Amino acid sequence: MWLALNYFQFFDNLIxxxxxxxxxxxxxxxxxMVRILILEKEMTEKVDLVWCDPWSxxxxxxxxxPLGRIPSLVLESGLAINESIIIANYLDSIDExxxxxxxxxxxxNVFYLMGLGQGIMDAAFSIVISKKYLxxxxxxxxxxxxxxxxxxRSLGQLEENIEKYSHEESIxxxxxxxxxxLSYILFRIPEMKINDNYPKLSKWCERISSRSSFESxxxx
Length: 220
Known about the structure:
Blueprint: E1 4-5, H1 7-12, E2 20-24, H2 29-40, E3 47-51, H3 59-64, E4 72-74, E5 80-82, H4 84-94, H5 107-134, H6 142-165, H7 173-188, H8 194-197, H9 199-208, H10 212-215
Parallel strand pairs: 1-3, 2-3
Antiparallel strand pairs: 2-4, 4-5
Helix pairs in contact: 2-4, 2-7, 5-6, 5-7, 6-9, 7-9
């Protein structure tokens, strides 16, 4: 069973160390990407989850990650690694028991998908946060329209290429990045109508999302 600590339990037991600790929550696409990787790599015995609210600006958490962002991975040494894509690469690199999620055979394809997935995730997250804190007047702003257009162009490219760059025999970090981004849009920006406008991509995402690692980390 994957150990999940609450925020205060973590700081009460920080000195004890033992496992790495991943600061996370259930609605962050960035944190979810790392959580899925941990499940796929069978590393749940090595990484404990610590649920937290990065928007609370808690002084203890800001000492770990001065940027106030999640996910943040605290190593056994106490050193913290920040930013989801870096955390994911690190965890993949230190585990030798399971196949790498960035296999050399498909490395270029994986990085192509990772790049698009991260870009889509950034744009979608910015749209959601902007609406939450700045209101609907931002909807027709040049900045927001640019984000929407960037997402649409990226989804259009993936609609044409996803079967070419994704490999059915094994899941990769690129697949995870794209699927989490799409799931986040379905969760937070349903008006983009991914299922209607990008049928091939939607079908691909549905297949990937049927994995237990995705089902157990579904957005809530």
